[in-house]
Amino acid sequence: MSQILPEAIERYLAGVNRRRDPVLDAIAAEGHRRDLPIVHPETGALLQVLVTALGARRVLEIGTAIGYSAVWMARALPPDGLLLTFEREPDRAAEARVNFARAGVADVANVMVGDAARLVWKVSGPFDLIFQDGDKLLYEPLLDRLLALLRPGGLLVADNALWRGEVVAGYVERPHYPREQTEALVAYNQRLATDARVLSLVLPLGDGVSLAVRRP
Ligand SMILES: C[S@@+](CC[C@H](N)C(=O)[O-])C[C@H]1O[C@@H](n2cnc3c(N)ncnc32)[C@H](O)[C@@H]1O
Fold it and tell me: Is 133 in the pocket of ligand 1 (CB under 6 A)?
């Protein structure tokens, strides 16, 4: 549960999310078994809708883990599309590759191993959609580079925008996350809200998802 929406609403949303499948469910089960912070299924469904709505052909993801969100997005790409995803842990990247093959998206999904702060300078745009889900301390430092990699009208999406509610000062009695990560997310949300290059909002879905359209 995300701790953002009431449990009954979450259950309802899960019930109307009909796009799950056995491969995605197996990847999610493995992620939960190992306590990996993968996106909520409804966030995955949102990503798939966005990739489809944009007619996206090129997608970039920061933070692969074992490939759960990447599979959601890759499934919406055309056969000649590209999903590039960065992961600094080689074992996780290797597992993501296996999961891409299981999900039938190995032809479009590619994982690059290394530090996203370095890798963002090794790739060239334009991308139609970029999904930030790596180190929260990097969200804001990467913003300028990611906007430069995004096509005008493209979408910059970030997970954990609400951070179990901890971005709201005083809302959570005993915070779970290190304060510097929470502060980084607060700063990122604030920056997006005031940055003239984008039109943005935060959705209270999953753990909170921020969406920012790069203005033409
Ligand atoms: C929240 S998980 C990603 C979950 C994935 N997007 C999903 O929903 O299936 C974050 C991942 O980012 C990776 N990561 C953290 N900092 C990174 C960095 N600087 N460069 C590349 N990957 C990083 C972590 O190893 C972790 O696997």
Answer: yes
